[in-house]
Amino acid sequence: MSLEWGLHVFVTDMQVAKTIRVSGEMIIGEVILELVSALTGDQDWSDHALWWPDKKKWLLKPRITLNAYGVQSDARLQFTPQQKPLRIQLPDRHFREIKCSFSVMVFEAVIELCEQMSIRHPEEMSLIKAKPFTGQARGRKNGSDERELSPAGPPAVEVTSSDYPDGLFGDLLARTTEERANLNALWLDSTKSLAEQDVLEGDPVQLKFKYHAFMNIDPKIDDERINQLYEQAKWSILSEDVDCTEEEAIQFAGLQLQVKLACQAPPPSPNVKSPTLDQALSELQTGSPHRSQPSDILGVSFMTCVIYCITCHCAMTGSSIPGGKEVGWVSSLQQAFKV
């Protein structure tokens, strides 16, 4: 007969510790059955599993013995839920509190998250864990939240700036190659679970596009995916996470402004022929000499796009616009170009 010994298990839901008599030949299913029998109440334990914090290991296979897992009398296990809430920051800087599995690989957890948010092709995305960073932090003007720059997106659980100190995600501004490498090291390993990588319940993590091989983008069904992709591109340019020329950044800001004005403009007449992309880009750079009203979105000049780009960057970084006359300088130029 196998030698029996006391196994210490902490039940996280009830905040109680239990000691049960087990042997090395007992399988995990029998250990859980013995533990649940020692607990009071009619709680549903179907989502719970045994977690070994010291080894960072889940004991998920019910037919594997304690000896096979290497569990001995000095082990301290936890009986905890596999599905736990996690605070996800999307590329549009909005936070959502979503339940996901802490016992499956991060790759599978991302699939679950994307299914809940109706984002196709989750293999393009991954999670970044928040850690303190010694790089330069961007300031905020008058304590405002940078999410105010983001257009209205999907419903999300908003989190105030006081809940998360500066230096988690959006305030990081990598300047050197070493700082960029430190930021890239924050990506979670897709082959390990969240718990194995020290992610705790309620921790903030960021869901971003990691693999830039975008497949089968359909505007009819990928509106959420396109919006998040656009937001990540915008904030990557503003935070200097990607290397691009000023001309490319201004062109991107111009396209952003075109979309913004198009959303505000009345629907076009069916008799009006839509311009081609080359014509739209040409109008963006040169401006339309026949522009008469703001709804004529093809009449946005190159200087207007420059102003829009500078205004977005200064509002995000908290810096002042050249000349110190922020309101008058921007307002007079925007009024001149009828923005």
What level of helicity do the residues show? 25-40%
Order of strands across the widest beta sheet?
2-1-5-3-4
Please state the overall shape, judged from the principal axes of the Cα atoms.
elongated
Q: What is the CA-based Rg, rounded?
A: 27 Å
Task: Give the N-to-C terminal Cα separation.
Answer: 85 Å
**What profile does the largest beta sheet have?**
5 strands, mixed
What is the H/E string? EEHEEHEEEHEEEHEHHHHH
Unreliable sequence segments: 133-171, 289-300, 316-339
Average pLDDT rating: 75
Strand residue percentage: 15-25%
Number of strand elements: 11
Structural class: alpha+beta
Number of helices: 9
What does this structure look like?
By secondary structure, the protein is an alpha+beta fold. The protein is 31% helix and 17% strand. The strands form three sheets. A five-stranded mixed β-sheet has the order 2-1-5-3-4, with helices on one face. The longest helix is centred in the last third of the chain and has 19 residues. The termini are far apart.
Q: Short description, anyone?
A:
Helix content is 31%, strand content 17%. It is α+β, with helices and mostly antiparallel strands.
